[in-house]
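Reader question, answered in our methods column.
A reader sent in the components of a multi-part assembly and asked whether the whole thing could be modeled at once rather than chain by chain. We filled in our standard form and ran it. Here is what they sent:
COMPLEX SIZE: two components
ENTRIES:
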Amino acid sequence: MSLERLVVVGGVAAGLSAASRARRVNPHLEIWVYEKGPDISYSACGFPHLISGQVKEADALRVYSPEFFRTERNIQVFTQYEVTEVLVSHRRINVVKVRGGAPQEVHFDRLILATGGEPDVPSLTGLDLRGVFSVNDFQSTLGLKHYLESERPSRASVVGGGYIGLEMADALAARGLKVTVLERSTALCETTEAEIVGLIELELAEHGVHLVKNATVAGLAGDKQGRIQSVCSDQGETETDCVILATGVRPRVKLAIDAGLRIGPTGAMAVNEFMETSEASVFAAGDCVETTHLVSGRPAYLPRGTTANKQGRVAGENAAGRRARFPGAVGTAACKVFSLEVARTGLSSQEAQEVGFQACAATIKAPSHARYLGGKDVLVKLVADHLSGRLLGAQMVGSEGVAKRIDIFATALQARMTVEQLAQLDLSYAPPFSTTWDPILIAAQEMLRELRR
Amino acid sequence: MSLERLVVVGGVAAGLSAASRARRVNPHLEIWVYEKGPDISYSACGFPHLISGQVKEADALRVYSPEFFRTERNIQVFTQYEVTEVLVSHRRINVVKVRGGAPQEVHFDRLILATGGEPDVPSLTGLDLRGVFSVNDFQSTLGLKHYLESERPSRASVVGGGYIGLEMADALAARGLKVTVLERSTALCETTEAEIVGLIELELAEHGVHLVKNATVAGLAGDKQGRIQSVCSDQGETETDCVILATGVRPRVKLAIDAGLRIGPTGAMAVNEFMETSEASVFAAGDCVETTHLVSGRPAYLPRGTTANKQGRVAGENAAGRRARFPGAVGTAACKVFSLEVARTGLSSQEAQEVGFQACAATIKAPSHARYLGGKDVLVKLVADHLSGRLLGAQMVGSEGVAKRIDIFATALQARMTVEQLAQLDLSYAPPFSTTWDPILIAAQEMLRELRR
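And here is the structure of the entire assembly that came back:
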């Protein structure tokens, strides 16, 4: 009797979490993973640190090799194989070797789509110029690294002022490049509160990064040798020696659409809490699916490695015959921009209003630890629902003690705590780490006062 | 018509939080605070940093002066006034000036007892020798500081290996003293898990601190000039030039007992969630009261500045006519011992068993942030209830990312989360701060596996 076969499409984060989990649950499954690119299992969030030079060797960002999966987990990983079609009713995929070869038909009993996201690059002239990079996968990042080392450009333009754009600006400035960030909207980091954006802008300016806001990029212009020369936006022309496209990511769902799988309102694949798609035996996970936002209760597109891995585990567990749940996420994220830590979780005040909450907000500044030990202020902005008193979101910025403190709010959000409960938290205190009243509690008290008004 | 008068006994943490809160709630109250000692409103947790020399000026640990309370908050603070008796039925206290003067009778309408804790020093010979210090209040700490600067001792013995004893050992070693810690029991830090105690012991040894366990101190011996010479324990004699008594704190409840107020099973004053004592109009808060442990549901003695301040606010708010609640605490604490961060929250496995839970535990080690950016391992031990799957406690140790991460567990405990819910938390990730799977999630997964066994 032949074994049941689980096929996984995509071998970066969610796909490999799924395959590994399926193997742990079911030692008898045949598990095949197809990855279009040459690389699997790497830390994409480490790319800025490779570009800055803080991480010396690209291999430091690789986690596991195909050999590891084969020998240690009995999982076959095929790299540079593109899945071109999913025929759900036939339980079959069509696969083609990227570097040539005849198409193959592969039968599956269960299928997991973990096709990830792709750069959401606007259609511009000049995208194919030398010196233009998207840094969304290992190859494009290695391309940038090689370009920086061989061509030694002195100016860089980052298109897009979200977390990844800012981390790249930081990394390029650390290498000594003169950096310009072009941001389409009036403010950096969409859905980040204005107070926090203001501090990020100051930080960029202090580190010599030139910020151009309201800059819709119209095209990229090159020299006669086909090398990037300038970025043209409605704010004028920015001369540059290289361009980083950090315009965000969108779900890679062509395969799913062609297969007739349901796409949700966000444009990503719709899945239930078992990570099941609209077709039986077909699961999906990672940056190609949408996620229930646990604060709004609505579908959201939250492409994050953390969420992708959790979803992958659940998809793998269920594809292997169990019944695990992925309830959703609260949209927690953190990034480091020069000496600033920036973090957020839940809904911003604007998002909360849009979703229909009676959103009100409170902002405080308080030292991250005892001032007599050098503690510096962190800024905390909370959003709560006036009607229920429930916490809806939190954003923070500061030079220390921000990234992991946001997780306390994330936990409170997941527990659907009220601000009153938040203010009662028994948080740790020792002068090197906190103040008697942690900034979180001070923020909660200020939010309570606001709610009582 | 005369104003209503609120009298507060004790002016360090809880007492001043209470007075300040009462003032904010009720601008018309007359508020009088009596403090036996000469100092008010200081950071006792900063004492080790004053002793180490990291904090240069003692005044850096003072927060507010009596003048501040008088002019800014219209609160009268009387220092060096001892309240000798509380006559509840007469709504009266007897007060005497510490440095002499006739006793006074003072009427109150509402009373808040915030008498704090006192050093739980065993009755030993030689406690009055020169060079013996308890470091529980500002004066005793200043005494030690002065002694260190004027007598320049080269050896110190710390009696008691809890958090404060360890912080003092660290501080004295930082000043260049040769330090011995004498611990009564078989292990440091009572109720700390063995794996964590083991790492603390290694850390002490690496920094040249000599640890003597199972050492019940029998007495202190001095020279002919009345200066400390050695500590005598059942483990032998330890020659020393100074002794720090860090044997813990007990509630200061004599006044309450004499007044007929109810004392709870822990030996501290019994209060309800409104911080009311057994007598109407008499409230109590801080290190003199017991607290509901929100995991065990039982009364616990948790003398901490954080809890004291929260209780003080509630006592003050209610004494001023409102109806606020203090639900309890989960026993969160953190300390720094040389390069280690040590933290705990909730119940240890032994405590959980004693309370009647089907306690089981799981321990993991995982990097606090990306290894390719220098992340070092933290150790996490979780305790959960086998029957309900509920998280009961967490302890952590590591060189970074411990003290504020414990708060995520504290929040989960306060929300009564199961380990399954804990494993679903949407925690922040960026390589400088975490790994894709935060140590908290890795610990939760290991705990889940243990629970399913």
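What stands out: The first strand of chain A starts at residue 5 and ends at 9. The CA atoms of residues 79 and 136 of chain A lie 17 Å apart.
Send us your own complexes using the same form.
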